[in-house]
Write a structure and sequence with these properties.
It is built from 3 helices and 12 strands, in the order H-E-E-E-E-H-E-E-E-E-E-H-E-E-E. It is of the alpha+beta class and 249 residues long. A hairpin with an 8-residue loop joins strand 10 and strand 11. The longest helix is centred in the first third of the chain and has 51 residues. The relative contact order is 0.16.
């Protein structure tokens, strides 16, 4: 009597099955990882855009977060002396936003000025801003924003002269409440006196690109475009940018 052959899989068939299954699993995992990376980077860019737009909105609306625990006289803020809100001769003029290459943390400072004696309000907005001598408040009420998912600035460029400007200064005119933007290079130590910034014409109302890259540095950067305008719509995020769009010097 001839024995029946038992049905089953050979070692080769099982090995091929496991290899193909493993390959498909790896493809699925890689695809999922790329999708997650893309979603996270999109969130990073959109969040940065919303943050930039909020800075414009806060300055336009005159938002003041100074507490009564500090005082301000002639543009100098004293963190050791209390002062009744509204009794200071300082004027909240705007904000200074500072970006650092490779650092996901963006720092924001209040900017104050002082009304000069006998000021002439018939001057232009630019001249009035200069006359009020804006000062960055670096010893109190600073705030930070962290770009989500580890994305960080990878380059800066003011498009008019290719300067790598990493500072955005937003000033509200004492006369018309018009917002004027300035872009400039902020050194490692943030300057207090901003008079030279506002008195330099090339800094004023210029389009500037700020690129950010994914946490792992893979893929094209996103570009935050500051168009030099005076509204909260002056900032726009653009994905799939080129590195050359932000490689200022």
């Amino acid at each position: 009597m001839v024995g029946k052959r038992q049905a089953g899989f050979t070692i080769i068939e099982i090995t091929l099955f496991m290899a193909i299954t493993g390959l498909l699993f790896l493809i699925a995992v890689a695809g999922t990882g790329n999708t997650i990376r893309t979603f996270r980077f999109t969130d990073s860019g959109r969040s940065l855009e919303a943050f930039a737009q909020k800075q414009y909105d806060d300055v336009i609306n005159g938002l003041n977060n100074r507490s009564s625990d500090v005082s301000c006289t002639n543009g100098a803020v004293d963190i050791d002396t209390a002062q009744t809100i509204g009794s200071s001769n300082c004027l909240l003029m705007g904000k200074l936003v500072v970006f650092r290459s490779g650092n996901p943390v963006v720092t924001t400072y209040n900017v104050v000025g002082t009304e000069p004696s006998g000021v002439n309000y018939s001057l232009s907005d630019d001249d009035l801003i200069s006359a009020f001598q804006p000062q960055a408040v670096t010893n109190t009420a600073t705030s930070t924003y962290t770009i989500p998912w580890g994305a960080a600035p990878s380059g800066f460029k003011r498009t008019t002269d290719n300067t790598a400007t990493n500072g955005l200064l937003l000033i509200r005119s004492p006369k018309s409440s018009r917002l004027v933007s300035y872009t400039f290079v902020v050194p490692p130590t943030v300057p207090t006196n901003l008079s030279s910034v506002v008195n330099t014409a090339v800094n004023r109302s210029q389009a500037t690109n700020i690129c950010i890259k994914n946490a792992d540095g893979v893929g094209a950067p996103a570009r935050l475009e500051i168009n030099g305008g005076a509204s909260q719509n002056a900032a726009k995020i653009i994905f799939n940018a080129a590195d050359t769009e932000c490689n200022g010097v």
